[in-house]
Design brief:
14% strand; alpha/beta; globular; six-stranded parallel sheet; Rossmann fold
């Protein structure tokens, strides 16, 4: 079995993948758009003296005493357009601009939105919720390809539900179930749905058991 661990807050994914690899399981880690020092293999396993930058560590400027990050740790970035300076004429202007700049995306998003509705999860995700996440589809489908199981940390179950429909995923909760699913927001509605559709949900904080029961 080949497993992808997505999201690496506090090196939780990295440490879990290391343990699985010691047991003979092929486990990789995907850490994207997040370079906090405590989410880096070097922080966990390298020996160094000077304190690196907290948010953008430059490991090439430190003597790591021979440590090399493993090839199964994938540091990636979501593809983004670099916007120029623009004026926002009214609240919601930029969101509306993104929608009408690519009207075909409405057609592409519709099947996934209808699938969200068919799950019966309440509160129901809105069309704009799905539309907001959809632009990252190409990157995630490329990253998820070839894996049998996704272990998704924090809010990453949203991407597993959206972009790995043919594979099971496990949601790893580490504090994210306390409040986020109950937000009146796209993130809250989609995470609620993603928790409910997960093959398993791992709870690491006993104080969220009531939240889990509330989600059903």
């Amino acid at each position: 079995m080949k497993i992808l661990h997505v999201g690496n807050i506090a090196n939780n994914a990295y440490n879990n993948a290391k343990f699985l690899r010691r047991k003979g399981v092929e486990a990789d880690v995907l850490c994207y758009d997040y370079t906090h020092v405590m989410a880096q293999p070097e922080w966990e396993d390298a020996k160094f003296e000077e304190q690196p930058d907290e948010f953008h560590p430059r490991w090439d400027q430190h003597d790591l005493q021979g440590f090399k990050r493993p090839p199964w740790f994938l540091q990636e970035e979501l593809a983004r357009r670099v916007p120029g300076p623009r004026t926002q004429w009214f609240k919601g202007h930029r969101r509306l601009e993104r929608v009408f700049r690519d009207p075909m995306r409405w057609v592409q998003v519709l099947p996934k939105y209808l699938e969200c509705r068919r799950t019966g999860s309440l509160p129901r995700p809105r069309f704009m919720d799905v539309l907001r996440v959809y632009p990252s589809r190409t990157c995630f489908m490329k990253w998820f390809a070839g894996y049998d199981l996704i272990q998704a940390y924090a809010t990453e179950p949203i991407h597993a539900w959206m972009f790995a429909p043919d594979r099971p995923y496990v949601a790893f909760e580490h504090g994210t179930m306390r409040e986020i699913p109950f937000e009146d927001s796209a993130r809250g509605r989609l995470l609620t749905l993603a928790y409910r559709k997960a093959a398993r949900v791992l709870i690491t904080n006993p104080d969220v058991i009531a939240s889990a029961q509330r989600l059903g």
